[in-house]
Design brief:
TIM Barrel; globular
């Protein structure tokens, strides 16, 4: 597979808008795409998205929606009204729920289907889903099929499964979280890859968190990872 350029997305895994602003200012024009997840959005709400847009940044709203289709559809409508570029929903919610999210989001917001969290390994996954699985990749590919069937923009999976998803569903954009510099700490993630591995596997997006945000010099760490992507 020919390697493609991969869009880096910086994770704003902080607790306040002030902390987010400090990080964004420290990275300057080198970072143009940010992830707003449950911690920050629960603390600050839509105003953090509005502030990022005012700075000219794109936003990936990582809320991992999982509810009845009607509720998810209306939540996706609200996210689209905020102008976010990407929004996540859990694939385990099934094709009708994912399809409702796609309909609610419209054309401006891409729905990404979360497959298997990168914090999970095979024994954990077996315990969570309640049946015997032969591999994590099998479940990721099954949920990628749900995403394709429902018309989603893409999926979220680890770099370990990215190549298989791209091969099976080339129209789906794959977002890979858990990016770590070579030799970097894995923290609470079980299935991590380097930027070079994510790019080689065909990832369209790569979420970069503590490899940049916890670095002694975040701007320098970002430039190094961007070069690898």
């Amino acid at each position: 597979m020919a390697a493609m350029n991969t869009q880096p997305i910086i994770a704003l895994d902080v607790g306040t808008l002030r902390d987010a602003q400090s990080l964004v200012h420290s990275l300057g024009s080198d970072a143009t795409f940010y992830k707003v997840g449950l911690q920050l959005f629960t603390a600050e709400g839509p105003r953090v998205v509005e502030w990022l847009h005012a700075q000219g940044k794109s936003v990936f709203l990582d809320l991992k929606l999982h509810d009845i289709p009607n509720t998810v559809q209306h939540a996706a409508q609200s996210a689209a009204a905020l102008g976010v570029a990407l929004l996540t929903v859990h694939g385990i919610g099934g094709a009708p729920m994912v399809r409702a999210a796609v309909e609610g989001a419209g054309n401006g917001t891409g729905i990404l289907v979360v497959t298997v969290l990168t914090s999970m390994d095979l024994p954990m996954l077996r315990g969570a889903v309640g049946h015997d699985l032969t591999s994590v990749a099998d479940e990721v590919l099954r949920l990628a099929g749900v995403a394709a069937q429902a018309g989603a923009h893409g999926v979220v999976c680890s770099g370990h499964e990215c190549g298989a998803v791209v091969a099976a569903h080339p129209a789906l954009g794959v977002l890979v979280p858990g990016i770590r510099a070579s030799g970097g700490a894995t923290h609470d993630q079980s299935r991590v890859v380097t930027p070079e591995q994510a790019r080689a596997a065909g990832a369209r997006y790569a979420v970069i968190g503590r490899a940049v945000t916890a670095a002694e010099n975040p701007a320098a760490a970002l430039r190094s990872l961007q070069a690898a992507l």
